[in-house]
Design goal:
The protein is mainly beta. It is built from 4 helices and 15 strands. The chain has 2 domains: about 100 residues, Immunoglobulin-like (Sandwich); about 80 residues, Immunoglobulin-like, CATH 2.60.40. Strand 11 and strand 12 form a beta hairpin. The longest helix is centred in the last third of the chain and has 6 residues.
Length: about 200
């Protein structure tokens, strides 16, 4: 996955790991996970509050999301090591490699104009994804290049009352390759008019 903020900062690659990990003292005994790239001496330390356990195939897998490359640079291609350590200091390692060539894509951009969302498309199709202040998914809507009406988006009561921010998700037309995501954008700035987001000022006599 490729990420970029709305202010056009250099994009970053995002990497997720799913690990089938067991410990004879229980999964609660695991203390740390690290991702190591020896060739360029890169190291990512993942704390316990940065992973979660997800069921898969009848067992629980340790999932680490949101590992980021350096701004403007992809993850170095080649061999990596995942190192898992428990509270007693015992460790286990597993190697994997990243071989696919870095993707070169154009991110979309968006603005509000005359009560509509105006999309300048990027390399692929674009999906607007809205979330609440707690990160709950509220809805998603495909966008076309040019003007897009806000009416179908704001028809949802949940979006009108809970939308905090949104992201632009894009991918190649054939559905192959990575997803690239731009955001977060402020919902109050793009979805609602000033009259809807500000209280009127009353003159005191």
């Amino acid at each position: 996955m490729l990420l970029q903020s709305p202010d056009e900062t250099p994009p970053q690659e995002s990497l997720s790991l799913a690990l089938d990990v067991t410990d004879e003292d229980g999964i609660e005994d695991l203390e740390a996970v690290a991702l190591v790239q020896d060739a360029e001496e890169l190291y990512w330390k993942i704390r316990r509050d940065q992973w979660e356990w997800k069921p898969f195939g009848g067992s629980k897998w340790l999932v680490c999301s949101g590992l980021l490359s350096r701004p403007g640079k992809p993850f170095p291609r080649g061999e990596y090591r995942v190192v898992v350590t428990d509270m007693a200091g015992y460790r286990a390692e597993r190697e994997f490699s990243i071989r696919a060539e870095p993707s070169r894509v154009t991110f979309p951009s968006i603005e509000r104009k005359d009560g509509k969302l105006v999309l300048r498309p990027g390399s692929g199709s674009t999906l607007l994804v809205l979330t609440s202040s707690t990160g709950t998914l509220l809805g998603s809507f495909p966008l076309k290049g040019g003007e897009n009406s806000l009416q179908p988006i704001l028809a949802s009561p949940a979006i009108r009352t809970q939308a905090k921010e949104f992201f632009l998700y894009s991918r190649a037309p054939d559905g192959e390759g990575p997803i690239w995501v731009k955001g977060p954008y402020e919902g109050s700035k793009f979805l609602f008019s000033r009259e809807e987001t500000e209280y009127p000022v009353k003159k005191v006599q």
